């Protein structure tokens, strides 16, 4: 039911209630039974055990479980227990993260009022908000948390703060007389108040129209319940990588077993060899290292005032191709500012006001406008006037307030009667320009009062249109002298001028948007504000080209599928949108192949925040619901911080690619040295425990250190990667195979050379293979830091990596030379001469590719 289209009498009639008596208690009970209680539906709680078990469905986790099984089959129980510990730790962390993410619906409860004053059986009483039913007559005043959707019956200077619902922090004046168009967006339904919003000024009576899940807030709760969080691009790529690795391991195992049996080898020995190859193919430490790299990114983002709630989302911003940004507070300062002063013959800009370059006529206008206003009055435009007056006006304490006439919906103006020390009285009136010009007979021009002529009226109308074209909110100012004892009336006024206000753009947002554009990221404004205001801010920020479109929520609803797709491509501003519109816009952009980041701060943003590839909530002004639904929180509510987070996200993904390249090249080397040895009928060059040691320990430390590499200089000068881009794209797969092949070959050469010199000393040959493989990897890790050449980056610019390599070398030497560890790891002490062969061979794979490449 479109209650805002009905008059107040029609609404009361439709709801079968009474202005003066309200509902009877009997009727209220009957309606409670038919309509249900005025509360949000709660989704059935997720079984904690099932949620915990669900953490082990991830393919990379299944790889770890497979590695645990393999280690157990090989009798390496210490390794099996170690890997199982990693699996359980990941599961516990994921469990608590998901429990935390599902609190969005619970956070909605704080927006439901606890008690409400209403009229039943002709008596005013306080009842629990949950017992309110449609048809109840409720009393609201400043400080009231609205408990249900309601149609105004009486409004006296009533202002509602609807930011949780519309995203706009400016209080909205409520009236009781109008009948609005059916298509009027929520932000323009001035005859309605909504559940979850607050009354900040005035008081009034309203009749309840909707309760519980049928309210606008309830519709948002329903959207949240039925909106699924999407997997991040990294999760999708790692899931794909896991499947490739598992398939490769199974195929290798099968190939080795069949080839060995065909050659007449012992079946059990071939199964053992195949399992060893499977161990080599699975990088057991990869999931843990990815988690740690993401966590390191989180710490760096905290320094940039960005707080990450969902770990896998850390790098998602790096591949975002569209940022859907709220306007108020993110792109703008979220504070109304005096931008222009217009009086007859004088037009002053914000820059001139800030510099104090205000001529006498404008000073008189500001003095009149500020008369009787006090700081903290609640109205944003009045706050802007008092702030400006405090900066540039002399003390006006000679005048005192005698009486105030608050704004109401009928008069559409406010007045204040002032008196000075000589008992001179003046009535100051502030209101809508069209109202005040009708009630004026003179104008204050050139320091004197002159009759209001048709030419003055035409000039006034042109000035009003000019300010409107700049999307400024206007406040006209007039006055009249009042004789002592005379009852003041708001007519025969002297029209002084008008003021133009705007929530100005953040100065740093313009630069951030430009940098995002150069990085291939489009910024789209999605706001509940007026289209002209939104377009003006977009033009100030240079975020919209000349051909860019502005589309309202009402226009969006009328588009067919093809038109909607085109609108998403060409529009840069979507205004007067509902929570459903925001969700549709995000999902539409995703269907068009974009990775979408969505910013928001209100309850109305929560469904879209949850559906976006990465939801970004505001830390200062954001509601609890928005923060719970988001993956990232901006501590300073600043778009420029989001730009820094995009840069960090790209760096995180680049670093993940670096250590995937490093670890998989190592694994390819392990696989090939084992496979070639089997095919040549040689003993296994590496023991299973040695492979696990390399994968979990030796590979792990340098890989972690790659995670702290700083961003490349061109990080924000290249376009975002495609959403379906393979993790092996841009030559990574070729590098993994070629480097891995060479590492495997030199390791096999070292193994065969040792066996040829000492055929009966298999342990020494395995130790030399073990040392060659590790040394080759530790040299190769410095090559992994650059897409071009090992010489393009200073090796000492990442001292964590230098330390990790030194630590890995030390651990290798301990395993080789510690007598207690030699039986466990099948190693033996090597003479110094052997290290010459090991080092020379290990350096070859990196030296061969050391020259710059494109």
Automatic annotation (TrEMBL):
GO terms for cellular component: endomembrane system; membrane. GO terms for molecular function: ATP binding; ATP hydrolysis activity. This is Ca2+-transporting ATPase. Belongs to the cation transport ATPase (P-type) (TC 3.A.3) family. Type IIA subfamily. It is found in: Endomembrane system. Gene3D superfamilies: Calcium-transporting ATPase, cytoplasmic domain N, Calcium-transporting ATPase, cytoplasmic transduction domain A, Calcium-transporting ATPase, transmembrane domain, HAD superfamily/HAD-like. Keywords: ATP-binding, Ion transport, Magnesium, Membrane, Nucleotide-binding, Phosphoprotein, Translocase, Transmembrane, Transmembrane helix, Transport. Residues 2-76 form the Cation-transporting P-type ATPase N-terminal domain. PROSITE patterns: ATPASE_E1_E2 (PS00154). The chain crosses the membrane at residues 48-71, 77-96, 244-264, 270-296, 659-680, 686-708, 736-756, 768-786, 798-820, 832-851. The lineage of its organism: Bacteria, Bacillati, Bacillota, Bacilli, Bacillales. It is a multi-pass membrane protein. It holds the Pfam family E1-E2_ATPase.
């Amino acid at each position: 039911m479109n209650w805002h289209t009905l008059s107040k009498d029609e609404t009361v009639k439709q709801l079968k209630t009474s202005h003066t008596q309200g509902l009877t208690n009997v009727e209220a009970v009957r309606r409670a039974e038919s309509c249900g209680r005025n509360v949000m539906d709660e989704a059935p709680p997720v079984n904690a055990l099932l949620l915990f078990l669900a953490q082990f469905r991830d393919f990379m986790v299944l790889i770890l479980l497979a590695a645990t099984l393999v280690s157990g089959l090989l009798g390496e129980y210490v390794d099996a227990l170690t890997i199982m510990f990693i699996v359980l730790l990941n599961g516990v962390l994921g469990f608590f993260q998901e429990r935390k993410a599902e609190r969005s619906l619970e956070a909605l409860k704080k927006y439901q009022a606890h008690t409400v004053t209403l009229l039943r059986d002709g008596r005013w009483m306080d009842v629990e908000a949950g017992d309110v039913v449609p048809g109840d007559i409720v009393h609201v005043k400043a400080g009231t948390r609205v408990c249900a959707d309601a149609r105004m019956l009486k409004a006296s200077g009533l202002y509602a703060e609807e930011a949780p619902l519309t995203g706009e922090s400016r209080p909205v004046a409520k009236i009781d007389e109008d009948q609005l168009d059916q298509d009027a967006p929520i932000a323009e339904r001035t005859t309605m108040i909504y559940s979850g919003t607050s009354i900040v000024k005035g008081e009034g009576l309203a009749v309840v129209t909707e309760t519980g899940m049928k309210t606008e807030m309830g519709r948002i709760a329903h959207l949240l319940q039925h909106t699924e969080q999407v997997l991040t691009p990294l999760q999708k790529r790692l899931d794909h990588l896991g499947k490739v690795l598992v398939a490769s391991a199974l195929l290798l195992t099968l190939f080795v077993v069949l080839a060995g049996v065909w050659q007449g080898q012992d079946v059990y020995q071939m199964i053992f060899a195949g399992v060893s190859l499977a161990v080599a193919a699975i990088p057991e430490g990869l999931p843990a290292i990815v988690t740690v790299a993401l966590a390191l990114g989180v710490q760096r983002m905290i320094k940039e005032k960005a707080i990450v709630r969902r770990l896998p989302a850390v790098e998602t911003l790096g591949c975002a191709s569209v940022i859907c940004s709220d306007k108020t507070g993110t792109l703008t300062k979220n504070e109304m500012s005096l931008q222009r002063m217009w009086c007859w013959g004088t037009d002053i800009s914000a820059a001139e006001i800030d510099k104090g370059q205000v001529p006498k006529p404008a000073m008189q206008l500001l003095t009149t406008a500020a008369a009787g206003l006090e700081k903290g009055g609640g109205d944003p435009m009045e706050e802007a006037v008092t702030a400006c007056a405090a900066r540039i006006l002399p003390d006006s304490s000679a005048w005192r307030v005698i009486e105030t006439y608050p704004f109401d919906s009928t008069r559409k103006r406010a007045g204040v009667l002032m008196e000075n020390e000589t008992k001179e009285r003046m009535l100051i009136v502030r209101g809508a320009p069209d109202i005040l010009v009708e009630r004026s007979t003179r104008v204050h021009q050139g320091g004197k009062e002159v009759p209001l002529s048709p030419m003055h009226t035409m000039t006034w109308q042109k000035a009003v249109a000019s300010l409107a074209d700049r999307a400024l909110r206007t406040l006209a100012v007039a006055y009249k002298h009042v004789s002592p004892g005379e009852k003041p009336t708001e007519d025969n006024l002297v029209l002084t001028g008008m003021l133009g206000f705007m929530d100005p753009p953040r100065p740093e947002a313009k630069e951030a948007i430009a940098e995002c554009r150069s990085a291939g990221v489009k910024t789209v404004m999605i706001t509940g504000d007026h289209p002209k205001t939104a377009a003006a801010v977009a033009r100030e920020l240079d975020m919209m080209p000349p051909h860019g479109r502005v589309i309202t929520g009402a226009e969006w609803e009328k588009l067919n599928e093809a038109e909607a797709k085109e609108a998403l491509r060409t529009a840069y501003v979507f205004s007067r949108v509902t929570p459903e519109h925001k969700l549709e816009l995000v999902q539409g952009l995703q269907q068009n192949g974009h990775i979408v980041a969505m910013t928001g701060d209100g309850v109305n943003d929560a469904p879209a925040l949850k559906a976006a590839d990465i939801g970004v909530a505001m830390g200062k002004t954001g509601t609890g619901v928005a923060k719970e639904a988001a993956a990232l929180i901006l501590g300073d509510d600043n778009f420029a911080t989001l730009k820094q987070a995009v840069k960090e996200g790209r760096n995180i993904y680049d670093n993940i690619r670096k250590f995937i390249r490093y670890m998989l090249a190592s694994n390819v080397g392990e696989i090939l040295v084992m496979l070639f040895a089997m095919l040549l009928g040689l003993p296994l060059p590496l023991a299973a425990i040695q492979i696990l040691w390399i994968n979990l320990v030796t590979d792990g430390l340098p890989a972690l250190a790659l995670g702290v590499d700083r961003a490349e200089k061109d990080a924000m000068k290249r376009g975002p990667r495609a959403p379906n881009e393979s993790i092996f794209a841009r030559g990574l797969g070729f590098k993994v195979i070629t480097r891995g092949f060479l590492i495997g070959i030199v390791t096999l050469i070292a193994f065969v050379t040792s066996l040829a010199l000492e055929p009966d000393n298999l342990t020494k040959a395995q130790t030399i293979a073990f040392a060659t493989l590790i040394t080759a990897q530790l040299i190769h890790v410095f090559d992994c830091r650059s897409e071009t050449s090992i010489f393009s980056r200073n090796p000492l610019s990442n001292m964590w990596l230098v330390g990790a390599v030194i630590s890995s070398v030390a651990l290798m030497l301990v395993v080789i030379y510690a007598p207690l560890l030699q039986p466990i790891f099948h190693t033996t002490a090597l003479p110094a001469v052997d290290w010459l062969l090991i080092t020379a061979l290990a350096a070859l794979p990196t030296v061969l590719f050391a020259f710059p490449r494109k």
